[in-house]
Amino acid sequence: MMTAQKQQTTWHSVSETLRDAMPYLHMGWQFLATILLFVAMGWAIDAWLGTSPWLLIVFSMLGSAAALYYMIQASNQMARSEKKRKSKSSGNDH
User: Fold this and answer.
1) What is the pLDDT of residues 8-27, one digit of tens each?
2) What is the per-residue DSSP string for 60-77?
């Protein structure tokens, strides 16, 4: 049987892991949502104009490029904030 302190430590560890993973989970969902939004727009405009499948293909590529751009921007921002956080936690060594 697990003691109360060990159980609390385990839950603390799980919550820390989830807290650390949240930015990456958000980035993945944002990536998927961006691509799906562009695909849906391409499909809808194709259906409206009768140009199937050309706009679907174009919007799929645009959505992939936009999602990749967002992912690069978000990872750069996360790296900058992590670097800033590490420099604050280590103190001013200069």
Assistant:
1) 677 778 788 888 888 889 99
2) HHHHHHHHHHHHHHHHHH
Domain membership of residue 67 (yes or no) is yes
In a domain, 44, yes or no: yes
Count up the domains in the chain and report the number.
1
pLDDT per residue as tens digits for the range 40-89: 999 999 999 999 999 999 999 999 999 999 999 999 998 898 888 888 88
Long-range contacts from 79-83, C-beta under 8 angstroms, 24+ separation: none
Residue 75 located in a structural domain: yes
37: buried, middle or exposed (CB in 10 Å: 19+, 13-18, 0-12)? middle
Is 0.70 topped by the overall pTM? yes
The verdict on residue 19 lying in a domain is no
Domain region containing 72: 30-81
